[in-house]
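Reopening this one. Same input as before:
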Amino acid sequence: MLVAFSVAPSGNGNDDGSVHDAVAAAVAVIRASGLPNRTTSMFTEIEGPDWDTVMGVVKAATEAVMPFGSRVSLVLKADIRPGYEGEIDGKLERLEKAVDELS
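Same output, byte for byte:
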Protein backbone atom coordinates (compact mmCIF):
# COMPACT_ATOMS: atom_id res chain seq x y z
CA MET A 1 0.00 0.00 0.00
CA LEU A 2 1.32 3.40 -1.01
CA VAL A 3 0.10 6.60 0.57
CA ALA A 4 0.99 10.14 -0.48
CA PHE A 5 -0.02 12.69 2.08
CA SER A 6 0.48 16.22 3.28
CA VAL A 7 -0.19 17.36 6.81
CA ALA A 8 0.11 20.94 8.01
CA PRO A 9 -1.18 23.15 10.81
CA SER A 10 -3.13 26.35 10.40
CA GLY A 11 -3.75 29.08 12.88
CA ASN A 12 -0.10 28.97 13.91
CA GLY A 13 0.44 32.73 14.13
CA ASN A 14 3.47 32.78 11.79
CA ASP A 15 3.38 35.95 9.71
CA ASP A 16 5.09 34.24 6.78
CA GLY A 17 2.82 31.18 6.92
CA SER A 18 5.79 28.86 7.34
CA VAL A 19 5.01 25.36 8.57
CA HIS A 20 8.46 23.76 8.24
CA ASP A 21 8.85 23.09 11.98
CA ALA A 22 5.56 21.22 12.08
CA VAL A 23 6.37 19.30 8.89
CA ALA A 24 9.76 18.39 10.35
CA ALA A 25 8.00 16.89 13.39
CA ALA A 26 5.78 14.81 11.10
CA VAL A 27 8.68 13.66 8.90
CA ALA A 28 10.67 12.61 11.98
CA VAL A 29 7.77 10.34 13.00
CA ILE A 30 7.53 8.91 9.48
CA ARG A 31 11.25 8.19 9.27
CA ALA A 32 11.25 6.60 12.72
CA SER A 33 8.54 4.18 11.54
CA GLY A 34 11.07 2.30 9.42
CA LEU A 35 8.68 2.18 6.46
CA PRO A 36 10.05 3.13 3.04
CA ASN A 37 9.32 6.82 2.56
CA ARG A 38 10.14 9.85 0.44
CA THR A 39 9.47 13.51 1.16
CA THR A 40 9.24 16.17 -1.54
CA SER A 41 8.39 19.85 -1.33
CA MET A 42 4.65 19.10 -1.30
CA PHE A 43 3.99 15.52 -0.12
CA THR A 44 5.43 12.57 1.72
CA GLU A 45 4.99 9.05 0.38
CA ILE A 46 5.14 5.96 2.55
CA GLU A 47 4.79 2.30 1.70
CA GLY A 48 3.63 -0.43 4.01
CA PRO A 49 2.13 -3.89 4.02
CA ASP A 50 -1.41 -3.01 5.10
CA TRP A 51 -3.95 -0.36 6.12
CA ASP A 52 -3.29 -0.56 9.85
CA THR A 53 0.46 -0.11 9.54
CA VAL A 54 0.36 2.75 7.06
CA MET A 55 -2.57 4.58 8.62
CA GLY A 56 -0.98 4.24 12.04
CA VAL A 57 2.01 6.20 10.77
CA VAL A 58 -0.24 8.79 9.10
CA LYS A 59 -2.12 9.22 12.38
CA ALA A 60 1.08 9.56 14.41
CA ALA A 61 2.49 12.11 11.94
CA THR A 62 -0.75 14.09 12.10
CA GLU A 63 -0.67 14.05 15.90
CA ALA A 64 2.93 15.34 15.80
CA VAL A 65 1.71 18.42 13.89
CA MET A 66 -1.20 19.20 16.24
CA PRO A 67 0.82 21.24 18.78
CA PHE A 68 1.84 23.70 16.03
CA GLY A 69 -1.58 25.21 15.33
CA SER A 70 -5.20 25.44 16.31
CA ARG A 71 -6.20 23.00 13.56
CA VAL A 72 -4.56 20.51 11.18
CA SER A 73 -5.17 19.84 7.50
CA LEU A 74 -4.54 16.37 6.07
CA VAL A 75 -4.59 15.55 2.34
CA LEU A 76 -4.18 11.86 1.47
CA LYS A 77 -4.09 9.72 -1.66
CA ALA A 78 -3.70 5.93 -1.48
CA ASP A 79 -2.74 3.24 -3.99
CA ILE A 80 -4.00 -0.07 -2.61
CA ARG A 81 -2.54 -2.99 -4.56
CA PRO A 82 -2.39 -6.20 -2.50
CA GLY A 83 0.55 -8.47 -3.15
CA TYR A 84 2.94 -5.79 -4.38
CA GLU A 85 6.01 -4.45 -2.57
CA GLY A 86 8.69 -1.98 -3.59
CA GLU A 87 6.28 0.17 -5.55
CA ILE A 88 7.55 3.41 -3.99
CA ASP A 89 10.53 3.00 -6.34
CA GLY A 90 9.10 0.52 -8.86
CA LYS A 91 6.45 2.90 -10.16
CA LEU A 92 9.06 5.59 -10.78
CA GLU A 93 11.42 3.15 -12.49
CA ARG A 94 8.67 2.05 -14.88
CA LEU A 95 7.74 5.68 -15.59
CA GLU A 96 11.33 6.66 -16.35
CA LYS A 97 11.70 3.67 -18.67
CA ALA A 98 8.52 4.66 -20.53
CA VAL A 99 9.72 8.27 -20.86
CA ASP A 100 13.12 7.10 -22.16
CA GLU A 101 11.39 4.92 -24.75
CA LEU A 102 9.56 8.00 -26.06
CA SER A 103 12.80 9.97 -26.46
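So the earlier flakiness isn't reproducible anymore. For the record, Residues 87-102 form the longest helix (16 residues).
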